[in-house]
Amino acid sequence: MLGIKLIAVFLVSASIGILYRIPRSLLVYASLVGVVAWLIMYYTMLASGTVVLADFLASIAVGIMAECLSRVLKTPATIFIIPGFIPLVPGGDAYITMLHMVKGQYASGAAMGMQTLLTGGAIAFGIFVSSTVFRLAINNKMERSCQYVDKS
Amino acid sequence: MSILLEKIVALSGLAGEIMLKNGAETYRVEETMDHMAKACGALKVESFVIPTGVFLTVAEPNGRSLTVMRRVRDRTINLDRIAKVNEVSRGLVDGRIDYQDANARLHHISQERTGFSLLPSMLASGAVGGGTAILQNGLFFEIAAAFVAAMLVRYIAHIVSRMNGLPFVFEFLGGMVASFCGSVLHLIWPHLGSDAVIIGGIMPLVPGVAITNAIRDVIAGDLLSGLSRGLEAVLTSVAVTMGVVIILSLNVW
After folding, report:
1. In the predicted model, is pLDDT for residue B104 greater than 60?
2. Which chain A positions have a beta carbon within 8 Å of B115's beta carbon?
3. Residues A26-59: tens digit of each pLDDT
4. pTM of this prediction?
5. Probe site for chain B from A5, A19, A88 (most B CB atoms < 10 A)
6. Pick from A113, A34, A25: which is nearest to B131 by CA?
């Protein structure tokens, strides 16, 4: 069952890549980012049982992998981030929220909606954290080289 | 080697316009224009980019300066073009290609038709829907229905963009179609659930580029662009949700 799901995640990431027209030669890398991120989410889910933590760790991994790949392959990091985080999006939770709201079960709907929002926030913040760390590291390096150029 | 100021401005302005039109982050557009103009011999470059326009001022060593503004109306998503413009800019800075070559390549990039025609992108959209249905533990027929629903969503995107649709119309209609497919399937075969179908159908509508660019713009300090892209992502999600909810409430009633 896990094997089928991994193939499904690969398919989803690759298809998102095709829809957003990322360069064909990079499709495999982008899809693998998605698969690795989903695996991290899956195993964190099994170990801890909290969706928010699982999605946060997985999206940090997406950010790190995307920034590394973009340095190595000299392409924008966005190309790897988007197919990477789409399989993590809490579509099921969002749908259950809508279902509860439509049926008038506002208490359970609000609880589920809060969980959806927190999960979405965790994904966004995971990418935020990893990209910020990378940017800090790069800026630090650039500042040093700039000072060196100024003095010479 | 000296290139006319007008030509430098036109070249960097074109590069910025292509990148912004195809969904690049704000800081990437600004840095690309900066690097390209400086590689052509400009002394000072100032640029200001918002999601709907590009402003660029280039100053020459002899004191002359020129400002252009490019308004960007119809924005699409084509990350392939961004990668290509990025490649041209890197080549120009490294000295691997010269001005004429870069200009020709940029014009080629802005005019070529990249990507796929309707049927392959419909299949890709269907694969997103079907794959998501598998992840939601859907049964075989639910997965097939999710595939069809996501394909229909893509077809609607095609029709709406042909009719010069307003923003968020397509997401709203897409949500309605996905929800409709799921509800009809549940009506015909009551033992099949509509959950996996609807979740799969709305998955291609997730505003991935808007979310990513909003985060990256805020990190880079472009708060104006970050806010407007974040708002775009929120409004898109609300449009999809309303589409689904309206059909679902018909169903419940």
Report:
1. yes
2. 21
3. 999 999 999 999 999 999 999 988 899 999 999 9
4. 0.87
5. A19
6. A34
Extents of the domains making up chain A = 2-151
Residue of A nearest to B216 (CA): A128
At residue B67, the 3 state secondary structure works out as strand
User: Is A67 in contact with B215 (CB distance < 8 Å)?
Assistant: no
Show the tokens assigned to B237.
């999600």
- Listed by number, the residues of chain B in 146-205 with a beta carbon closer than 8 Å to a beta carbon of chain A are 154, 195, 198-199, 202-204
Q: Do A5 and B135 touch (CB under 8 A)?
A: yes
Q: Which of B176, B118, B174 is nearest to B150 (CA)?
A: B174
Return the residue in A24, A56, A80, A82 with the most chain B beta carbons within 10 A, the one to mutate for interface testing.
Answer: A82
| Per-residue pLDDT tens over the stretch B5-63 | 888 899 999 999 999 998 899 999 999 999 999 888 888 999 999 988 999 999 988 88
Q: Which of B83, B114, B219 sits opposite A75 (nearest CB)?
A: B83
On whether the CB atoms of residues A39 and A26 are closer than 8 A, the answer is: no
Cβ B212 vs Cβ B160: under 8 Å: no
Give me the amino acid identity at A121.
G
Domain edges within chain B: 5-111, 118-252
